[in-house]
Amino acid sequence: MPKGKLTFDYEKCKGCGICVAFCPVKIMYSDKATLNKSGYNIIRYDEDKCIGCATCAMMCPDSVITVEVIK
Ligand code: SF4
Ligand code: SF4
Predict the structure, then answer these.
(1) pTM, full prediction
(2) In total, how many domains does the chain have?
């Protein structure tokens, strides 16, 4: 069971990849097929494997990610 559910404010994402680099379970990735309006690849994650640590949200410089912890 996933422990966290992520919401992305995709239009604010600059595709820097910091969230991808810092996710401790390495489940985040750049969606090479989907760009936001600014032309950056949006980020996706493996919804079943999230541990809800919120590291991605804390590291994102643009406050793109919100993590809801699932009890
Ligand atoms: S909350 Fe933690 S485990 Fe889930 S995607 Fe973000 S960094 Fe990875
Ligand atoms: S850290 Fe934030 S701005 Fe950078 S790729 Fe991840 S969601 Fe986008």
Answers:
(1) 0.96
(2) 1
Q: Does ligand 2 lie within 6 Å of residue 23's CB atom?
A: no
Over residues 14-70, the pLDDT tens digits come to: 999 999 999 999 999 999 999 999 999 999 999 999 999 999 999 999 999 999 999
Question: What is the span of the domain harbouring residue 63?
Answer: 4-69
Q: Report the CATH number that the domain containing residue 33 is assigned in CATH.
A: 3.30.70.20
Q: What are phi and psi of 48, to 5 degrees?
A: -80, -15
> For residue 15, what pLDDT is reported?
97
Instruction: Please tell me whether residue 6 adopts helix, strand or coil conformation.
Output: strand
Q: How far apart are CA 66 and CA 49, in angstroms?
A: 16
Pocket lining: 64 vs ligand 1, CB cutoff 6 Å: no
Beta pairing partners, 65? 8
Contact 51, 25 (CB under 8 A): yes
